[in-house]
Specification:
The complex is a heterodimer of chains A (1024) and B (463). Chain A starts with a helix and ends with a strand. Chain A is mainly beta and 1024 residues long. Chain A is built from 10 helices and 53 strands. Chain B has a single domain, classed as Alpha Horseshoe (Serine Threonine Protein Phosphatase 5, Tetratricopeptide repeat). The longest helix of chain B has 26 residues. Classes of the chains: A mainly beta (1024), B mainly alpha (463).
Chain lengths: 1024, 463
């Protein structure tokens, strides 16, 4: 009998064709993967497609369809004859969205890896150029820090402690590192030192175009991106058109930005008072024991009245001179729509952010087209094109000797910006020797620009060989054209002697990628789904760089290109590239959506490794169990849904320079002749780095989903770490790129979202996520490796076994002697002297705890949101503090009559807490010009970086007219971004990393970073 | 359906398998792999230029080597923005973590690596266009430069004045791979290696360019005379005075370089390849040296902008030397007051092009070696001749002590800011006396090196 029914089912001609779309009843969003079955014969069925549509051919002329989707209430719809249905399902609770995974989509409930997902509504309307910034604090396990407040700056993004994740935009891995070669950090010889400011090319993506962001956190989720997935993967999905009436959206915001926490410097009078106190202290100390003073000291230095230059009445607030209230504007227009066959999404956006540091700005224009066309039941194709043009007026800041902020910190308040004749004040003539230039002069007269044109384009075709066997081929290109220009006018100290200097450089990069994926779905018995995916990818990157420098520019001509230079002082031109070949496969098996299995593997071949070690194999597996679907689970239990899952997998990393496995000779010259000089020593055994991660997670829902979230525990090991290893200098080189070491990261993550009130007119949600992380270096080839945030300065960081990655290194500070006011440092080696050899580990930049919370309230047409982020247990190495807390000490100048005319730097009001008389308990030493007050690489510069930041406060009002002929919706809102920071940090902002967004080893140093802004804005979203 | 899959698989796989390996073979457009070097005469010539270029490294003869050493003597003081490692040098309190010393160490061994590559491969090249004369000349240059580099290391990291000491430096005469480590050689072993190289080189080298007929190689390259001059320097350091005298005299009498008119002593620093030059490293505006920016920076530079200053002590020193024209090469007057009481050397002026040559050896040093090797009283004449040339009255020399004091002072007057003083104080056993108790006559081996060698290299006692 069963056989007969079966035979009938497949042999009889299908007479009735039912087509339809499945939607969410509230949002009207289409639902992907909803199950559509015939009630009379549940073996006949299908599931809805990526656009929510389904087509089902059945034998009966009339019957009932059962439409089900996890997280939604089942619905029965009757039909009679061939028809088209528009089916709306009611959301039980938004538990079971479909989310994007590597090379496909999956129902959230079926996922066994660790993936965090966030939607457009969570990150829209933020005055942020970098998309990663918009999800700051909203996802557990991902720590995002603003390394610098500079417009377009790169962010320090770490997924579970691994920095620099892979960004994949609509399936295309996107180059995210800084492509700019402008060095904003020079030493006195004009050599570039330190990494300096880092701007991120991920800013080329317009956040408004993004529909959702998924973060693949564990190895089983990420390993399908094998080669580049070691540091986590961020999948970005842009908006696509939907069939129906064309929707237009106009989004606009405008706002003003101000430096959120300016430093509070002493006024002219207060500076004089401080110096007088220092002189008095010195004189008293000299009376008590003249032997501690060097031969240079004459008591007249302390007793002569200060020269007239200290009493000019000039009062310059340098913070006011270099910072400004700067506007920010963004306008975006998009249109989307189409019919059943062709759908489109187009958008144009213009973002204009003036920097809070004078002169600086970032302007970006984006245009995007996403197009889908269904040729037939079997074939569809589409194309995504995104074009970005940006112009960044940079400023020399972040880890620089001669930057705007660097110079302004410590500038004398008695120095005017301009002399009376209108020329820039000459910094040498005033009280502070710290400067390398007049801060305003160096900002205006050093002119750096980075301009980019970026195109991301991909075209795809998908062919359904059978309804359950699809082949998809995608070909994409990521093309970057970038120019970097920097000009130093002859007025700057850097270029005064040479009559101005400039560098013009051009960088072009083309990355193409071909992906071919075959996907097969089948149902094995009722309710058991099996999916198989296999693919083959090719990727190649080619880059060209040309740079030319010159000096000597026609005075007053305004010409800034090297072609105007008297002599060309340098030129450079090279090409580089790499190629990747990948094979990948994945099998998913879900038994009754209860027992879930997933296995994946990827083989990558990279040109960066020698032919013997070229291929890497990256397998992963995971299992999940929906305990709450078991029969024994009580139906009215508090915990309405519970899934346990665990995974293990390996991901790889090839992020080293090209051609590191070969010892090379590079072009050099001597005496006008060209030749070849040794460039590197190579390790021919260079191979893939392997990151192994074990993950256990629980997805839970309480009270029918009113509260839901995840708890995760993981342990990851970066093994065969690819890095520069210290080698003996007698080889002729200081380091070699090789595989060494093992870094272990252990973490715990909690996230929860609660719908506290959920009424028609009033709802209130609260979300919170907390992550704990502990990283430890398990193994290194060399006992300890000292690193410096600057190439020519004492070590600031150390890598040592048993300690976290990039621990701070310096001399421990014990405080101030209450009797004398002298600073006390730990003489670790007991040699009676305080120097580098007393250095110890004194802090770390990675927080123990971090996370965020946000709450949203909607009452009728009003909505309000507050979002916050926090960190706990991280330190900041505030290297610049030694400038503004000197108490007068260090460099000082006097004339032949022992009249003091110059000291080191102005101080901030931090100095108000200094030791002043015996018995004072403080950690800030007495004022003194001659006895040291500060040891830069010491615990004195370590500050607690723990903080809570109220990142966003917004209030909105939405109008939805009953008659939608003129418009569909209008939302007006007011927002404050970066409203408050609760912290004890004395610098601009505890969320800082002056070595930029791509230097995790030397993270957490504050060396005159471009500070963060507070932004007040007004905006609207207009849909019609 | 089966057919479709089969076709897709077949097409994909054939495409993949045939193209993967070539697809993954990327080539660098700016580098030449080790395996492609030393294949013919042209690549050998390229490696030779590379060897000279390695000397130009700013941490070797490009500036820091000489200036760090003078900062670490009574000649120098340091400025800069409170840079701890720089301050250490000025205070003569070097620690083994000092970044400058570490960079100097690696830079010199980089030159040794480049020289070893040439020495290991020069005789293996099969190319008919490569004449024996050129082959020998390049081999001689590599040997001489390797010897010189070892000596430059010994001069600062080893007890060069004591032939019986175990504190030499690691001698590297082969191409090492990344895993190599070495301990110290003894001083005697180090000198033997240096002298072997220089003597072998002297026999191979010539003053004329073997590539052309009757063309001098030029003072920017290692020549036979330069090699002989370096031998004189090394023999002197090794206290082998008869040989030092022989070599110094050979150079002086060759007429390859002559002492300039003393009144124009500034000219030898303002021009390239002056009469006094024997071997100097040439720079140009596209290939700058660091001297100018490190010692002068710009007209109104503050102390913080100049890393290496002339110590007040050097001013005092010249005050006792009436008429000495070399005092004019120092400026203690027209500086920003923040620099006072120190001053700036004017040996490296030229702020626009910053292409100052590095003197590796010049004739006046040979005259001083000659005088010292002749000893008291025979050496008086050579010393007085140089003093007369430099505008000074002859020193009164009545005994051996006065003689060596005069030699030491003369070397200071002549060679300040050329990286000589610290080793000279050690040579004469005066480090503690002049620089203060506790200042050691050798610089520390970088801690990074000791770590990387697994402790194989022994630190100098006292650090």
């Amino acid at each position: 009998m069963a056989l007969m029914i079966w035979l009938t089912a497949i042999s009889a001609d299908a007479q009735t064709v039912i087509t339809g779309v499945v939607r969410d009843a509230d949002s009207k969003e289409t639902l992907v993967g909803a199950n559509v079955r015939l009630k009379s014969d549940p073996t006949v069925g299908t599931s809805s497609d990526i656009d929510g549509s389904f087509t089902l051919s059945v034998t009966p002329v009339s019957d009932v369809l059962i439409i089900s989707f996890v997280g939604y209430t089942d619905r029965e719809v009757s039909f009679s004859g061939s028809t088209t249905l528009d089916i709306e399902l009611t959301n039980e609770r938004e538990l079971d969205e479909v989310i994007v995974v590597g090379y496909g989509t999956q129902k959230k409930s079926d996922i066994t890896g660790s993936i965090s997902s966030t939607r457009n509504e969570d990150f829209r309307d933020q005055p942020i150029s970098n998309v990663a910034g918009s999800i700051q604090g909203k996802v557990s396990g991902i720590d995002i820090r603003n390394a610098s407040g500079t417009p377009g700056a790169g962010l320090l993004v770490s997924v579970r402690g691994q920095f620099n994740p892979l960004y994949v935009v609509d399936g295309i891995p996107m180059i995210s590192e800084s492509n700019s070669s402008i060095s904003t950090s020079f030493d006195l010889q004009g050599n570039s030192v330190g990494a300096g400011q880092n701007i991120s090319s991920i800013a080329d993506i317009n956040p408004d175009d993004i529909e959702s962001i998924e973060i693949l956190k564990d190895a089983s989720a990420a390993s399908i991106y094998g080669a580049r997935a070691a540091n986590g993967v961020i999948l970005i999905t842009t908006k696509r058109g939907k069939a129906g009436k064309t929707k237009f959206n106009l989004n606009y915001y405008t706002g003003i930005q101000q430096v959120s926490r300016p430093l509070d410097f002493l006024s002219s009078e207060e500076l004089v008072d401080l110096i007088e106190e220092a002189r008095q202290n010195d004189y008293n100390a000299w009376l008590a024991d003249p032997t501690i003073f060097g031969e240079d000291y004459d008591p007249a230095l302390s007793t002569n009245p200060l020269p007239d230059s200290w009493y000019t009445g000039v009062e310059t607030n340098w913070m006011d001179e270099i910072f400004r209230t700067a506007p920010i504007n963004n306008v975006e227009f998009s249109a989307s729509g189409g019919n059943e066959k062709t759908k489109f999404y187009i958008s144009n956006a213009y973002f204009d952010q003036q920097g809070i540091v004078i002169e600086s700005y970032y302007k970006r224009f984006n245009s995007r087209i996403n197009l889908d066309h269904q040729v037939s039941d079997k074939l569809k194709f589409g194309e995504n094109i995104s074009l970005t043009v940006s112009n960044n007026r940079r400023s020399l800041n972040d880890n620089v000797y001669t930057g705007t902020v660097t110079n302004a910190i410590g500038s004398s308040p008695l120095m005017p910006v301009y002399e009376e004749d209108g020329s820039y004040a000459n910094f040498e003539d005033y009280q502070s020797s710290w400067l390398s230039d007049n801060p305003v002069l160096s900002t205006i007269e050093i002119v750096p620009f980075t301009k980019t044109t970026r195109m991301l384009a991909s075209v795809f075709a998908e062919y359904a060989i059978r309804p359950n066997l699809r082949f998809r081929s995608t070909w994409s290109a990521d093309v970057t054209g970038l120019t970097d220009d920097i000009y130093f006018s002859p007025l700057t100290t850097d270029a005064e002697a040479v009559g101005g200097k400039a560098t013009n450089s051009v960088f072009n990069q083309k990355v193409w990628l071909g992906e071919n994926i075959l996907t097969y779905d089948t149902q094995i018995g009722a309710g058991n789904f099996f999916t198989l995916m296999g693919g083959f990818n090719l990727q190649q990157s080619m880059g060209d760089f040309v740079s030319i420098s010159g000096q000597g520019f026609p005075i007053g001509s305004g010409l800034q290109d090297v072609s105007s230079a008297a002599i060309v002082t340098g030129g450079e031109s090279f090409s580089s590239g790499y190629a990747l070949v990948s094979f990948l496969g994945r099998a998913n098996y879900a038994i009754q959506s209860k027992y879930l299995f997933s296995l994946s593997a990827r083989v990558d071949g990279s040109s960066r490794f020698s032919p013997n070690n070229r291929y890497g194999f990256f397998p992963a597996g995971s299992i999940g169990w929906h305990i709450s679907d078991e029969a024994f689970w009580p139906s009215n239990f508090l915990i309405s849904s519970l899934k346990i899952r665990t995974s293990y997998g390996i991901t790889g990393d090839q992020e080293i320079g090209d051609f590191q496995y070969i010892s090379f000779w590079s072009p050099v010259n001597y005496n006008g002749q060209s030749g070849l000089g040794p460039r590197n020593l190579a390790d021919a055994d260079l191979r893939w780095q392997a990151n192994k991660m074990f993950n256990v997670g629980i997805d839970y829902a309480l009270w029918k989903g009113r509260v839901n979230g995840s708890i995760e525990f993981y342990q990851g090991n970066k093994t065969d770490l690819l890095s520069d290893d210290v080698i003996s200098g007698i080889t002729g080189f200081s380091s070699v790129t090789r595989n060494f070491g093992n870094i272990q990261t252990t973490g715990f993550e909690f996230s929860g979202q609660g719908y506290i009130v959920d009424k028609k007119d009033f709802d209130w949600t609260l979300g919170i996520n907390v992550s704990w992380i502990h990283s430890e270096i398990i193994d290194l080839s060399t006992d300890s490796i000292l690193l410096s945030a600057y190439t020519d300065l004492t070590a600031t960081h150390i890598l040592v076994e048993g300690q976290p990655y990039g621990a701070f290194w310096g001399v421990p500070y014990e405080g101030v002697d209450p009797e004398t006011g002298d600073p006390i440092y730990t003489d670790t080696n007991g040699d009676g002297e305080i120097d580098d050899s007393d250095a110890q580990i004194i802090g770390k930049s990675i927080p123990d705890w971090f996370g965020g919370w946000n709450t949203r309230v909607r009452y009728k047409q009003w909505d309000a949101q507050i979002a916050a982020t926090f960190t706990w247990g991280n330190d900041v190495y505030n290297m610049i503090r030694s400038t503004y807390q000197t108490g007068g000490w260090s460099d000082y100048g006097w004339d032949e009559e022992y009249n003091l005319y110059q000291v080191y730097a102005n101080n901030t009001h931090v100095i108000d807490d200094r030791w002043q008389q015996p018995g004072d308990e403080t950690d800030i030493p007495r004022a003194s010009l001659f006895n040291y007050n500060f040891y830069q690489n010491s615990g004195q510069a370590i500050e607690d970086g723990s903080h809570m930041r109220i990142r966003e406060i917004s209030v909105g009002y939405t109008i939805k007219p009953a008659d939608t002929r003129y418009f569909e919706s209008l939302r007006l809102y007011l927002q404050v971004q970066n409203a408050f920071v609760f912290t004890n940090y004395t610098g601009f902002d505890p969320e800082v990393s002056s070595t930029g967004g791509d230097n995790p080893q030397t993270a957490g140093v504050d060396y005159a970073a471009y500070p963060q802004a507070r932004t007040f804005m007004f905006g609207f979203n207009f849909g019609f | 359906m089966k057919n479709s899959i089969a076709i897709i698989c077949f097409v994909s796989l054939t495409g993949i398998l045939s193209s993967c390996d070539s697809f993954l073979s990327q080539n660098s457009t700016i580098d030449v792999a080790d395996s492609d070097m030393f294949t013919d005469a042209a690549s050998l010539e390229s490696a030779r230029i590379g060897l000279y270029n390695s000397l130009q490294n700013q941490y070797y003869y490009g500036g820091y080597y000489q200036l760090v050493l003078d900062a670490y003597s009574d000649n120098g003081a340091t400025g800069g923005y409170d840079n701890l490692d720089l301050d250490e040098l000025g205070l003569k309190e070097a620690s083994a973590d000092n970044i400058y010393i570490q960079n100097v160490w690696t830079a010199i061994y980089n030159t040794i690596y480049a020289a070893n590559q040439i020495i290991a491969n020069v005789d293996l090249i099969e190319d008919e266009t490569l004449s024996d004369a050129v082959r020998n000349d390049i081999k001689g240059e590599a040997l001489a430069i390797r010897g010189m580099a070892h000596f430059d290391l010994l001069k600062i990291f080893g007890e060069h004045w004591d032939a019986t000491s175990m504190y030499g430096i690691p001698v590297v005469t082969e191409v090492l791979d990344a895993t190599a480590t070495r301990g110290r050689n003894t001083v005697a072993e180090t000198f033997t290696a240096i002298l072997d190289d220089l003597l072998a080189a002297e026999a191979l080298l010539s003053d004329t360019d073997p590539r052309y007929e009757d063309v001098m190689k030029g003072k920017q390259f290692m020549t036979k005379t330069a090699c002989t001059a370096l031998l004189a320097r090394v023999y002197r350091a090794n206290m082998n005075m008869p040989m030092a005298l022989e070599k110094a005299t050979a150079v002086i009498s060759s007429g390859y370089a002559t002492v300039a008119d003393g009144a124009l002593v500034g000219e030898i620093y303002a021009t390239k390849f002056s009469d006094e030059s024997i071997f100097e490293l040439a720079f140009n505006a596209q290939d700058k040296s660091a001297f100018n920016s490190l010692t002068y920076a710009r007209e109104d530079a503050l102390r913080s902008e100049v890393n290496f200053l002339a110590a007040n002590d050097l001013k005092t020193f010249f005050e006792d030397r009436t008429g000495d024209v070399r005092a004019d090469l120092l400026d203690f007057e027209s500086n920003d007051v923040s620099i006072e009481p120190d001053g700036r050397t004017q040996k490296y002026r030229g702020e626009v092009f910053q292409d100052n040559s590095a003197y590796i050896i010049r004739i006046s040093e040979l005259l001083l070696i000659q005088a010292e090797a002749q000893g008291f009283p025979a050496g008086n004449t050579a010393l007085w001749d140089l003093q007369a040339n430099r505008g000074m009255d002859a020193s009164i020399i009545d005994n051996e002590d006065q003689f060596y004091s005069a030699i030491m002072a003369e070397r200071r007057a002549e060679l300040n800011f050329e990286g000589d003083r610290y080793a000279d104080l050690a040579h004469f056993g005066k480090v503690a006396e002049v620089l203060g108790d506790g200042v050691l006559p050798c610089l520390p081996i970088p801690n990074r090196e000791i770590g990387a060698s697994g402790g194989l290299i022994e630190q100098y006692p006292g650090y």
